[in-house]
Amino acid sequence: MESDSFAIRKKILDLTREFYAVAHKPAAFKKGDKIRYAGRVFDDKELTSLVDASLDFWLTAGRYSLRFEKELAAYMGHKHALFVNSGSSANLVALSALTSPLFGQRRIKPGDEVITCATSFPTTVNPILQNGAVPVFLDAEVDTCNMDLTHLEEALTSKTKAVMVAHTLGNPFDLDKLSSFCKEHSLFLVEDCCDALGAKWDNKMVGTFGDVATLSFYPAHHITTGEGGAVLTSSALIKRAAESMRDWGRDCWCAPGEENTCSKRFGWKLGDLPFGYDHKYTYSHIGYNLKATDMQAAVGCEQLKKADAFVAARRKNHAYLLKALSSSFGSCFIMPRSLAKANPSPFGFVLTVRDDAGFTRDELTACLEKAGIATRLVFAGNITKQPAYKNKQFRVVGELTGSDTIMNNTFWFGVYPGLEKASLDFIIGTIGSFVKSRQKK
Asked: Is the dihedral of CA 17, 219, 87, 79 positive or negative?
């Protein structure tokens, strides 16, 4: 029976490879095709791995999840990786873990403050509010889109417990300055690397400088599992708290389908429970269920093998666009900048329209969208002006002029590995035609 099922599985996987070649093999770019800002890049290996996992019909975390977590931790240079169902969930788990009583006086409590950037994706900021803490917003630099550290010391109070900030669009922020600031003041540093897989600072992977890091595997990101994300740390204590937050808040750390990993399942005395209460149903945190599935992890295992090639392709595409656009249109745009020690893993190509360019951001993006070139804004812009944050408790340190400029003048478009040179040339040509038409007026 086992040999029969193995033979049938092999036939199914062979047919899956054939199916990929017929149904999913990418076609070359031709004029008129939509140029997306991002997209999944995969081959028959991801498809067969996904089908292989589905044939197990395990449905929750299993053999592929364990493998993916182990390989991802090694790739990122961490001891632990926890696979979750999205990058937003990863941020929620990471910040929530730091509220654990396991950290004693260092824990983040309601009313404590967390320094972050006013130009953010919402779910970098939301976990701070969701845990009853207070976001303290600093401005963003227009040319890097990262947090401006000018008023960093001014933002510090006796209530400050952590800094939670993203490497915006894959461009590393100043990790020397921010990590030393956090160490000096005993603050947790949460690196949101959801857009920055493979980016490096001083030749070291971003996400390894802080206490805990996060990744997203949404289809737009550097690698994908469909929906999915990860929490990474080398701290056993943070791993324990994060795993509990991800897995219902339970004290038990058994993998799905396992029991008595601690060898004393009925030998604990915790809280006001009776001695011997089942450890699998003992809860030490107010947690969630944010696990991902083995089928998602199966895709991730194959995507991770391609991560270096994907990052290299993004860097190549970004460099090609930067050379072409800065040499011809630098007077119209503030071009993207990275710091000397940074080696970005670009999520997109960012342009900021200068006030004296002779046209607006919205006019240019309308032109690009009409031509089939997808554009995106830099997330929430100045997040303090978003409707969701009206009447929410937060502090602002300094002026948010950079965030306002990004909100009004900045946009980005794709550099993902699915874009060919012909696609990039079409983007450059479309921008060039638009700028020249405006300069004649």
From this structure: positive
